[in-house]
Records
---
Amino acid sequence: MSDRSFRLDNQIAVVTGACGRLGPVWAEALVDAGARVGALDLAGAPVSANYQALSERAGDRMRRIECDVTERRSIERALDEVISRLGEPSVLVNNAGIDQPPDAGSDRASIENLAIDQFRRMVEVNLLGAFQVTQVVGGRMAARGNGAIVNIGSLYGSVSPDQRFYDHMPGNLPFLKSPAYGASKAALVNMTRYFATLWGSRGVRVNALSPGGVLGGQDEQFRAKYVARVPLGRMAQPADLKGPLLFLASSASAYVTGHELRVDGGFTAW
Ligand SMILES: NC(=O)c1ccc[n+]([C@@H]2O[C@H](COP(=O)([O-])OP(=O)(O)OC[C@H]3O[C@@H](n4cnc5c(N)ncnc54)[C@H](O)[C@@H]3O)[C@@H](O)[C@H]2O)c1
C-alpha cells in the first residue's frame, strides 16, 4: 500500500446534507485528499460556520448544489449539475439526515401517542432519501464501473438510545428519543449490504460509517452521562471522523465492501 492510496486526486465526490454539522467534516476530508466536492443540500438550508469557512478555503473545489434527497427529480437535476460543473462523481457520501434534537419541553408525546408523521418523515429522509440518491448517483457510478459509496449511519442503528441521558431535562413529559431514528439508521446499514452485494461486480463499493455522539452544544449533564458509557472516555471530535471516511472513500479500502465501520469510541462494544 502506498501513501497515495488515501488520496482522491482528480476525483469528484458528492456529499448530501453538506451544509450542517458533519457535512463540512466529510467535505473537508475529501477536499484535502484532492477531490472536488458537490455539496448538496436543501435550497435555503442554514449554512453552518464550518461550512462557510470551508467554502471560502476550498474555492472552486467545492460547489454548493441544491438538492432535496426525498425528490427524485431534484436528485437527477443535482447530478446533472455535478457532472456539468465538476465532472463524473466516483464518491458518494449519503449524509443527509434528520434527528430529533432535545426540545424545549413543552410539546412532548408519550410513546403511545407519538405522531406517526414524525416517524414517517425520519424514514423518508434518512432511508428513502439515501435510497433514491443511491439509485441516481450510485446508478451512474455502476453504469461507469467505478465508485465508492459511504452511508452515514449512527450508533443508534446498533443499540437503543439510553433514555436516562435525557431524564434531567425539564418538560411536561420525559424527553423520549424517537424509535424512528435508530430504525431508519439500522435499515440504512442493511441497505448498505444490499447495494454492496448488488454492485460489487460493477466496481462500486458500498460501506457504512456509523458515528457516535459528536461533541457540539450538548448540555453538561448529558455529556457526563454519555461519556461515562464510552470506553474511550469522550465524545467524538469532528477530526475523529475524517480518517475513517477517507479510508472508506479511497482505494485504501479497495477490498472492503458491505462493512459498517463504527466510529463511536467503543460505545457499542459494551
Ligand atoms: N452529529 C452527530 O452527533 C451524529 C451522530 C451520528 C450520526 N449522525 C448522522 O450524521 C448525518 C449528519 O448529521 P448532522 O449532525 O450534520 O446533522 P445536521 O442537522 O447538522 O445536518 C443535516 C443536513 O441535512 C440536510 N437535509 C435535511 N433534509 C434534507 C433533504 N430532504 N435533502 C437534502 N438535505 C437535507 C439539512 O439541511 C442539514 O444541512 C446525519 O445522517 C446524522 O444522522 C450525526
---
Amino acid sequence: MSQLQRHIPVMLNESIDAMNIVSNGSYIDATFGFGGHSEQILRNLDKDGKLNAIDKDRDAINLLNPEIFTDERFSLKHGCFSDLGKFSKEWGVYGSVNGILFDLGVSSHHLDEPARGFSFNKKGMVDMRFDQTSGISACDWIKDVDEQTLSNIIWKFGEERYSRRIAKSIIYQREQTTITDTEQLSKIIDKAVPRNEKHKHNATRTFQAIRIFINKELEVLKDALHNSYNILAPKGRLVLITYHSLEDRVIKDFLSVTDENLSTPRGLPIKSEFLKKMFNVVAKSIKPSSDEIKINPRSRSAKLNILEKVNEDYD
Ligand SMILES: C[S@@+](CC[C@H](N)C(=O)[O-])C[C@H]1O[C@@H](n2cnc3c(N)ncnc32)[C@H](O)[C@@H]1O
C-alpha cells in the first residue's frame, strides 16, 4: 500500500468549507504532508486558481503523488512555515492569499515509519525531526542534555506530572548504556511512571514533549501566525487543525496580542474607536464527527479553528 493510500486527511470537508474557497483565488497549504487537503483544495479551484504548499519533511516531497506534481496551478517547496513570508514573496502572492491551511503536527507516515523515531511502539532510532536535513536528532540531544533541562521540557511540552522521575531515570540509564532506540526509551519511561493511565501509554506525554522541543513546534507556529496577517488578502482566512492544548494556547495568545495591537499603520494618530481587530474568530474548537473518529482514530484529538483577517495590509 502506498503512503498516499494509507493517509486519511483529518476533518477534510470541514476544513475545506472553512477555507471559503473562491475558484480563482490563491491558497497556501502550510503543512502539505501527503497532500490530502491540497488535492481537495485543487478540486475547488478553476484554471486561474493557485495553490502553493510547503512541508518541512523531504519525504512529503519525495513521495509526492505525480498527479499533483504536474498540475500547473500547484507548486511545493521544502521548508518551515515560519518562513511563509519569504516563500509568499518568491511565489508572488504576498498580501493576496485568500486562505492558509495549517494541519499541525505529525503525519501518519511519521508514526508508521519506525525509522523516523516518532512512535513509542515501533522500534527505530529516536530521531523525531520533521526535517531530517537539519537540526539535532532527539537521540543526540538525549546524549548530552542535563537532568533539569530534560525534566523542564517533559513538564512544559508534555504536561507530564512525573517529569522529574522520568528525567532522572533517563539520565541514570544513559550512564549505563547509550539510548538510541524508541523501544529502549519507552521502556525506561514506562518503568519510571508509578501509575498507569487508562487508554494512554506511559510514554505518550514524554514522546510528545521531546518531539515538540526538537522541532520547535510552538515557536514556529507563533511566528507563522504573526507573519500571516501581511501574507493574507483582506478577508483572507487562517484555518488551523490543532491536536493538543499547547497549540490551542498559542492561537489564544496570538489572538489576545493581535486584539491589543489592532490593525493600524504604526504611529498614525487614529482614535481608538476607528481601530479594528486584526482577526475575527469565525469558529473555534470544532471537533471531528463520531463517524470520522471511528474510521480514523487519529483524528480524535483534532480541533478546527477558523480566523479571518479583518483589515487592510500595513507594514
Ligand atoms: C498532519 S500532517 C499534514 C497532513 C496533510 N494535511 C494531508 O492531508 O496529507 C502535518 C505535516 O506538517 C508538516 N510540518 C510540521 N511542522 C511543520 C512546519 N513547521 N513547517 C512545514 N511543515 C511542517 C509535517 O512534516 C507533516 O508532514
